[in-house]
Amino acid sequence: MDRIKEKLAQLRVEADENSAKADEYKAKVKTLETENMQKEQEITSLSHKNQVLEAEVEKLEASVKTYKDEASSGAQAGASAESLQRKVQVLEEEAEESDRTIRELNEKLRQTDVKSGHFERKVQALEQSRDQWETKYEEMAKKYEKAQKDLEELVGEIGNI
């Protein structure tokens, strides 16, 4: 009887530990989802910035072409063209940096998605394990009650003898 109580206590402790682990994994999943959302927002922001920069690059390239045509008619136009060419170069470098950042963020997002999926599977496995332990606990409780009744009947029979 003491062994059954010990076993039940042990099962309760294990169930509590599994429940705590499940809560911990749920919190981790929530954190990863939050990070994932932040990364998606950052990607959206960088994509928009990249589009704006590309549009500006196109405008500046058109301006550079116009100034190059006019540069042949005057030295002052040549200096402006060089200035615009430098601006185009700077903007192209910024666009490349933005593209690189977007690729890095996409990779981090993919990794976060993989981690999130992994933790979701762990949470599901722990929940299944917890459910199995609860079922086992209920079965053991029924067996314990039956054994208790059998013991009481046996005590009653012994008392009648």
From TrEMBL:
Region (Disordered), start-end ranges: 66-99
InterPro entries, per database record: Tropomyosin
Biased composition (Low complexity): 72-83
Keyword set, alphabetical order: Coiled coil
Top-rank lineage group of the source organism: Eukaryota
Name of the protein: Tropomyosin
Lineage: Eukaryota, Fungi, Dikarya, Ascomycota, Pezizomycotina
